[in-house]
Amino acid sequence: MRAGKAPALLLTVGLAFAAMPAEAVVILDSTWAEEGGGPDNEAAGFGAALRLAAEPQFRAVLALSTDGESWGEASGTWLGNKDGHAYILSAAHIFDLPATTDQYVVRTPGGDTLGIDHLWVLPEWNGDPNTRAGYDLTILRLDGEIDDAGPQPVLYTGGNEAGKLITFVGYGNRGIGSAGEQEAFYEGSDKAAAQGIVDSWDGLVRPPVEGEDAGNELGIFLAKEDGSIENSLGGSNWPATPLVGLLGSGDSGGSAWMKTKAGWLLVGVNSSGTGEAKYGETSWFCRVSSHRGWIASIFPDARFSPP
Fold first, then answer.
1. What is the dihedral of CA 216, 222, 223, 225, to 10 degrees?
2. Counting C-beta atoms within 10 Å of the first and last residue's C-beta, which end of the chain has fewer, N or C?
3. The predicted structure's pLDDT at residue 249
């Protein structure tokens, strides 16, 4: 485990099965209050996060469920269709190993449910988010196509994520910086989004060394509005935008995006986080750029940005 990196909290459980319930991203207290959140009205404060996630460039982010009824247990992103099948990029850790196709179904934007008929887990993934978050990838092939997820997303192939603002999207638990995830913040099954500055960037270690951090992660820190908490990743102690936040349980497998001159590019897959998802904690993302070859070997029709 890389020095200074706290143990990761896996982010896979949705409200219906959660020991720590709520629904999709942890946000600033101030933003929550401005959006109408308050005592006895906790779920009303996530309008900005919901509106951000509803923007058309994030339509490809989908919900996963173990039973086809309770959504938000995990997330994924549609990559495109081929030969009658949709392909979904998600996080490997959402599956119990050995991963099997019967553990989840996927909901399309239009509300249809598709099953998984084949899946691939990145070979170097060993189930340990503390040392292998940078290898936390799986690709799912569904038993039908998806035709209502918007344009195929473009995956980033560069190495300049450090210091950039990313927007991450998922269907997981909700909360606020002072409280973390709480059941009172939950309402509905829509995806939500938040933002963060990439204060931690690691290159890929290949082959990975057992017991040591294998790199390839993006890390963001949730600063407090008054700047009173020191940024453990070395960045600013102040929130970059009113929409900053952290991943919540169930956001795993969703995606992180970066806006560039070429448009919105998918830069990471939601992996894990530290502590209780409160102020001063960190969320981690698996960089997709380093795994372009593996992704293309499974789904050659994936779209990638110019190198």
1. 150
2. C
3. 83
Q: Would you state the torsion angle of the CA atoms of residues 115, 149, 220, 127, taken in this order, to the nearest 10 degrees?
A: 20
Contact predicate 122/275, CB 8 Å: no
Detail the DSSP E strand segments found in the chain: 8-10, 24-27, 61-65, 74-82, 85-90, 105-107, 113-121, 138-142, 154-155, 165-170, 173-176, 180-181, 192-197, 200-201, 217-221, 245-246, 255-260, 263-274, 282-287, 303-304
Q: Which residues of the chain have pLDDT under 70?
A: 1-24
CA 234 from centroid of its chain's CA atoms: 22
d(CA 259, CA 55) in angstroms, rounded, equals 13
Q: Residue 24 burial (CB < 10 Å; 0-12/13-18/19+)?
A: buried
- The CATH architecture one would assign to domain 8-304 is Beta Barrel (2.40)
Of 287, 263, 285, 296, the residue nearest 58 (C-alpha): 263
> Which residue is listed with tokens 């698996």?
286
pTM exceeds 0.90 for this model: yes
CA atoms within 13 A on the CB side of 95: 25
Give me the sign of the Cα torsion angle 131, 160, 281, 63: negative
State residue 158 phi and psi, 5-degree precision: -95, -165
